[in-house]
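Quiz preparation item.
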């Protein structure tokens, strides 16, 4: 019992001394009388602490990783799901913004042309030989066969099959497609036919071939074409932009003029389209065409060469082959400056203030170049001859 009391007394005294020393060392800071003892203890026990920490730390980290692994995995999964959700929302917002822009452009073009349209969206593309797409509007929305399909940029094609809620569109790039067309400004008409699958096939960037009915019609790259319109406005309404001429073929002996057209519509990225369910009251002509870019020159069709004027057969000429005098068609032997067609030896009548007659024109001179079959002209009233 005495030993226990003595031990407690010693322990209490030691704790009190330690507390006093710690207080003195803390309050005195760098002026502490125990700074030497503190430095000695750091030199002795510092390496021991570092070695023990290097041994214990991996064990503690492993234990923490094991105990915290389920919670960290759940947190990582939650962050991944939230990140995916935010990405999908951003993608959907971007698609909605693009579709809203396409719809605004289509409604603007329809308003300019006077078309009444039903908007739809492309939901699939044809996989066979036909160049077709399927849209999500059908008979329940008023869509019928052989109606025109367009976007805000221009012509897409025509409806070939109609279901209750879907419809099939034959694209203008299909080889079986033939659209009556008209060239901007020149008003030349022709037929636009598809030559490639959405521009990916042999048609390249110009999957539409234009054949003008007039082989001598003027046509140059840069000219734009629109739909001519069909009888009864089916299957194509007038005035829908088709594309821009990129290349003109010079084919000798052909009965038509051929050119290749780059369409306004991007057929490989179709999304929002419009079905024309009611045609315009009058032909919009070229009003639906987009404005030309600023600074772009207006294409000028090549002009045909003008034939040079030649002498009319029967005009008089000197024996050396030159014309007789400055006046064409003068009768041989006439005095220079005399009236064309006057007989030899006749006195020329004054011509001041007189009105030119038919003989004064080049055509009349050519006709009066030879001897006058009607005899000499009447004598002048002033000379009496």
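Solution:
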């Amino acid at each position: 019992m005495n030993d226990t009391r003595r031990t407690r007394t010693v322990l209490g005294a030691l704790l009190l001394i330690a507390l006093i020393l710690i207080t003195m060392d803390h309050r005195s800071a760098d002026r502490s009388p125990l700074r030497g003892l503190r430095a000695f203890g750091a030199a002795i026990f510092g390496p021991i602490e570092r070695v023990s920490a290097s041994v214990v730390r991996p064990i503690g980290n492993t234990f923490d990783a094991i105990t915290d692994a389920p919670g960290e995995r759940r947190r990582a999964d939650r962050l991944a799901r939230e990140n995916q959700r935010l990405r999908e929302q951003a993608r959907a917002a971007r698609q909605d913004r693009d579709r809203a822009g396409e719809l605004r452009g289509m409604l603007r073009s329809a308003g300019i042309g006077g078309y009444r349209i039903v908007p739809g969206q492309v939901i699939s593309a044809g996989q066979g030989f036909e160049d077709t797409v399927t849209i999500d509007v059908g008979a329940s929305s008023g869509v019928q066969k052989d109606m025109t399909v367009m976007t805000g940029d221009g012509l897409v094609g025509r409806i070939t099959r109609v279901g209750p809620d879907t419809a099939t569109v034959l694209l203008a790039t299909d080889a079986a497609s033939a659209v009556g067309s008209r060239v901007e400004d020149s008003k030349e008409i022709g037929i636009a036919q598809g030559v490639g699958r959405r521009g990916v096939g042999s048609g390249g960037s110009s999957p539409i071939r234009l054949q003008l009915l007039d082989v001598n019609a003027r046509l140059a790259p840069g000219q734009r074409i629109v739909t001519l319109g069909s009888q009864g406005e089916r299957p194509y309404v007038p005035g829908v932009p088709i594309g821009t001429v990129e290349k003109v073929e010079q084919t000798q002996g052909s009965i038509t003029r051929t050119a290749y057209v780059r369409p306004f519509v991007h057929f490989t990225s179709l999304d929002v389209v419009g079905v024309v369910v009611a045609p315009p009251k009058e032909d919009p002509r070229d009003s639906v065409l987009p404005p030309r870019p600023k600074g772009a020159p207006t294409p000028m069709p090549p002009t045909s060469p003008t034939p040079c004027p030649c002498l009319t057969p029967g005009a008089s000429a000197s024996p050396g082959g030159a014309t007789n005098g400055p006046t064409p068609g003068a009768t041989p032997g006439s005095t220079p400056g005399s009236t064309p067609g006057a007989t030899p030896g006749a006195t020329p009548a004054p011509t001041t203030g007189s009105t030119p007659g038919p003989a004064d024109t080049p055509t009349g001179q050519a006709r009066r170049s030879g001897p006058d079959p009607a005899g000499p002209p009447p004598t002048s009233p002033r000379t009496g001859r």
